[in-house]
Write a structure and sequence with these properties.
By secondary structure, the protein is of the alpha+beta class. It has 16 helices and 24 strands. It has four domains: 90 residues, OB fold (Dihydrolipoamide Acetyltransferase, E2P) (Beta Barrel), CATH 2.40.50.140; 177 residues, 2-Layer Sandwich (BirA Bifunctional Protein, domain 2), CATH 3.30.930; 139 residues, Gyrase A, domain 2 (2-Layer Sandwich), CATH 3.30.1360; 69 residues, no CATH class. The chain has an eight-stranded mixed beta sheet with strand order 6-9-10-24-23-22-19-11, with helices on both faces. A five-stranded mixed barrel has the order 1-2-3-5-4. Strands 12-15-18-16-17 form a five-stranded antiparallel beta sheet. The longest helix has 23 residues. It is globular, with a radius of gyration of 30 Å. The protein binds aspartic acid. Aspartic acid binds next to strand 23 and strand 24.
Length: 608
């Protein structure tokens, strides 16, 4: 037997007991003739005391950091207790020890505030994983996994595995492909999600399915993306949107309770996509704080109507506003006293290429009731006050205004709002605000191809009262510039996203389950009948054998864990992640393969 106890479990109650521990040497301290060793395993750290009588042995077998040690001795009360660790009241007076394995000096220190940089830690990830901070993240991940599974199991969901070597599924990204040796010239695709399989399982009658499953998307990696990531993927039959919303808000609340001890009793707030875009300029708003957008002038239609017509700025000879498609404002609390340097810095901030605005207009709502702005030349104080009031600004607030093309300006204002929220400490890590965003547009306009693409995926159903608009109208867009006038632009989907603190943590939809509507959908996306049959004949076929109404959702498991763990980065919550260029620096993958492998696959490389 290698050990009687772990390094995290011994307490005063065990004093006098003889125990054997095994673990890694965290730290060695020599005080005269005695030596203290901190022995670490997954469960904690226990102090070992090696007395004088072991000195000879220690000289013959010197110990080093990360050596694997087995030590036997008696649990004793410590004279110098350490209140910071659970085992801090005791130590083990060691009678004998065995070095189970040696270690070379690790390239960085195995402790919370390690001296190892990102790259080094990724290269030696197996050592990084020994660090408590990383271990805590993986423990949290497992807790979220367990909580989700428990909830789903209690609710009759069945975990059913689906294959990884499949035919392309369209989730809007590029597929990773795998050549088939047995079928030369043919390729599998790795699933971007199990979407079509879970729908087929509904046809097969498994009316509640889930899977904690890897998905693969060959996307350009933005900071927080991984080419392979994990979803909690779910599907239900005989459900309407309301059933899904209730079931999965229940799941997330259950996870909050189980993992964070947080009891969320109130219903999760809901907001339509239009409202989200209107009030926050963003389809995944962070509602932990206010600063909602004042739409002074907009090309965006809310509820199919143009809602902001520019009255507030009318009459002023300010070309920037007059020429802009959109003018939006936010009231930033308590910042009226910003000095010139600070407003200049904010102006530079919005001019950065990532934000892409030409400039920033501000109105200071002074404590004495006066107004001062960067556009005093063009606006009377009354006008400034009117804008500030409409933005909800109070004395002491700073109103920030952006003007320009609709989409870019709205996006920029959303970024600026988040930035100001961050600077003012309004995005608190320990506050969790859930939100459902509903009624997404069914289609998105793809400028490059001048056609419609599915905003979610092609299996998402239109709102029932929008089906006719879809069936009756020709999807062809005659004038690219006027695509917004096409009836398809206003079709809304039975699709929903769950948002947590400004992050999309889950998304799904009620699906199309009739062959003819699905065919119509494929046609709307510019797919010919042959192409639709070639790609999705299996699904269209299945829909002819009694497909039940169904819908589902998938949660981004890695991101959910990261947010619950208070981190920005999903990588911290994945045991063996890829770096920002999609590389596994530990394995050094991707890498070249042998010529023999190419030959077997009958593939010739043609690198440009
Ligand atoms: N398969 C979808 C996705 O990965 C989720 C869903 O519609 O259930 O986004």
């Amino acid at each position: 037997m290698y050990r009687t106890h772990t390094c995290g479990e011994l307490r005063m109650a065990q004093t006098g007991q003889q125990v054997t521990l095994a673990g890694w040497v965290q730290r060695i301290r020599k005080f005269g003739s005695i030596t203290f060793i901190d022995l670490r395993d997954r469960y904690g750290i226990t102090q070992l005391l090696l007395g004088e009588e072991l000195n000879d042995l220690l000289d013959k077998q010197p110990l080093g950091r990360e050596f694997v040690l087995q030590a036997t001795g008696v649990v004793s009360e410590r004279s110098n207790k350490n209140p910071n660790i659970p085992t801090g009241d005791i130590e083990i007076k060691i009678a004998s020890f065995v070095i189970l394995n040696k270690s070379v000096t690790p390239p960085f220190t195995i402790q919370d505030d390690t001296d190892g940089g990102d790259d080094l830690r990724m290269k030696f990830r197996y050592l990084d994983l020994r660090r408590n901070a990383v271990k805590k993240n993986l423990e949290l991940r497992y807790a979220v996994n367990r909580a989700a599974r428990n909830y789903l199991h209690e609710n009759n969901f069945m975990d059913i595995e689906t294959p990884f070597l499949i035919k392309s599924t369209p989730e809007g990204a590029r597929d990773f492909v795998v050549p088939s040796r047995m079928n030369p010239g043919q390729f599998y695709a790795l699933p971007q999600s199990p979407q079509t399989f879970k729908q087929l399982l509904m046809v097969s009658g498994y009316d509640r399915y889930y899977q904690v499953v890897k998905c693969f998307r060959d996307e350009d990696l933005r900071a927080d993306r991984q080419p392979e990531f994990t979803q909690i993927d779910c599907e239900m039959a005989f459900v309407e949107q309301e059933d899904i919303l209730n079931m999965f808000e229940g799941m997330v609340k259950h996870i909050f309770k189980a993992v964070k001890g947080l009891e969320v009793t109130e219903k999760v707030q809901r907001m339509s996509w239009e409202e989200a875009m209107w009030q926050y300029g963003n389809d995944k708003p962070d509602i932990r704080f206010g600063m909602q957008l004042l739409n002074i002038k907009s090309a965006f239609t809310k509820d199919g109507k143009l809602q902001a017509n520019g009255e507030l700025i009318a009459g002023a000879d300010f070309k920037v506003f007059n020429d802009a498609e959109t003018v939006v404002a936010i009231a930033v609390p308590g910042c009226a006293e910003y000095a010139r340097k600070q407003t200049d810095e904010l102006t530079e901030w919005v001019k950065r290429p990532q934000i892409g605005m030409q400039g920033l207009v501000f109105i200071k709502c002074n404590a004495d009731g006066t107004y001062k702005s960067s556009v005093d030349k063009f606006f009377t104080e009354d006008k400034l006050k009117a804008i500030a009031d409409a933005a909800g600004a109070k004395a002491g607030d700073l109103v920030l205004i952006l003007a320009g093309a609709e989409e870019r300006t709205r996006k920029a204002m959303s970024e600026l709002r988040l930035e100001m929220g961050e600077r003012l400490g309004l995005r608190k890590k320990d506050e969790f605000k859930l939100l459902w965003v509903l009624d997404f547009p069914l289609f998105e306009y793809a400028e490059d191809d001048n056609r419609w693409v599915a905003r979610h995926h092609p299996f998402t159903s239109p709102k029932p009262d929008h089906i006719e608009v879809m069936i009756k109208n020709n999807p062809v867009i005659e004038k690219a510039a006027e695509y917004l006038k096409h009836p398809y632009a206003n079709i809304k989907a039975n699709a929903y996203d769950m948002v947590l603190n400004g992050n999309e943590i889950g998304g799904g939809s009620i699906r199309i389950f009739q062959r003819d509507l699905q065919e119509k959908m494929f046609a709307a996306l510019g797919m010919s009948e042959e192409e639709a049959l070639h790609k999705f004949g299996f699904l269209l076929g299945a829909f002819e054998y009694g497909a039940p109404p169904h819908g589902g959702i998938a949660f981004g498991f890695d991101r959910l864990c990261a947010i619950l763990g208070g981190s920005e980065s999903i990588r911290d919550f994945i045991a063996f992640p890829k770096n920002n260029s999609g590389r596994d620096v530990m394995l050094d993958a991707p890498s070249a393969i042998d010529q023999k492998q190419f030959d077997e696959l009958q593939i010739k490389l043609n690198l440009q």
